Amino acid sequence: MSRSALAFEHAVSNEMQNGHFLPSGHPQGSEEARAFVHALLKRSMPQVNDDTIQDMLTRKAVVLEHYPKKKTKQKRKKTKGFTAKQRRELRLFEIEPEQQRYSIFLPLHELWKQYIRDLCHGLKPDAQPHMIQGKLLKADLHGAIVTVTKSKCPSYVGITGIILQEFKHVFKIITKEDKLKVVPKLNNVFSLEIDGFTSYIYGSKFLLRASERSAKKFKLKGTIDL
């Protein structure tokens, strides 16, 4: 918008606020209206000469700008979760001693087997082993029965039980003797069997949280390194 138009807008705004703009009994004819507006601008903008005022009124439309109020965006409050220290203090992931019984979690194992069957489309005898292996490596293992088959620490070899919790570096396993074992993934090889298919998990290549494995690309060829 030009400076003259801005000045005109400011003048009209002032006259409207002061109640001087188009009072009762204002002229109705075009010439009288022109004379009225010319006088209005001359009174409101004495520093502007007649030629400029005449130029503003000659075959030109003056558009008054409208400035809408800016809407203030309400910031969404982020829900804060517990910190790792708070989770430890609240003992959120601890299993009470009276709940550490193998028989309690057998239904969980049955649910896991059905979940794997659905994931692998039935585990048919003619299914490709590498396809099943790839599915199992990305599957949720809570409820799976696993066995430590190889380890750099001989005391871990032979531990068998249901996975109750999986963390980035360890499995928590409940054995048939109702013992809760914390088995590290590093330097251990685990085997799990379902409907005649046996899969091996190299723990050193499995140092991920359960939620992160679905996007991980695993090499299906095994390695002898623990």
Automatic annotation (TrEMBL):
It comes from the Eukaryota. InterPro entries: RNase_P/MRP_Rpp29-subunit, RNase_P/MRP_Rpp29_sf, Rof/RNase_P-like, Rpp29/RNP1. It is found in: Nucleus, Nucleolus. Transmembrane segments: none annotated. Keywords: Nucleus, tRNA processing. The keyword Ribosomal protein does not apply. The keyword tRNA processing applies. PANTHER family: RIBONUCLEASE P PROTEIN SUBUNIT P29, RIBONUCLEASE P SUBUNIT P29. Belongs to the eukaryotic/archaeal RNase P protein component 1 family. Component of ribonuclease P, a ribonucleoprotein complex that generates mature tRNA molecules by cleaving their 5'-ends. Component of nuclear RNase P and RNase MRP ribonucleoproteins. RNase P consists of a catalytic RNA moiety and 10 different protein chains; POP1, POP4, POP5, POP7, RPP14, RPP21, RPP25, RPP30, RPP38 and RPP40. Within the RNase P complex, POP1, POP7 and RPP25 form the 'finger' subcomplex, POP5, RPP14, RPP40 and homodimeric RPP30 form the 'palm' subcomplex, and RPP21, POP4 and RPP38 form the 'wrist' subcomplex. All subunits of the RNase P complex interact with the catalytic RNA. Several subunits of RNase P are also part of the RNase MRP complex. This is Ribonuclease P protein subunit p29. It comes from Willisornis vidua.
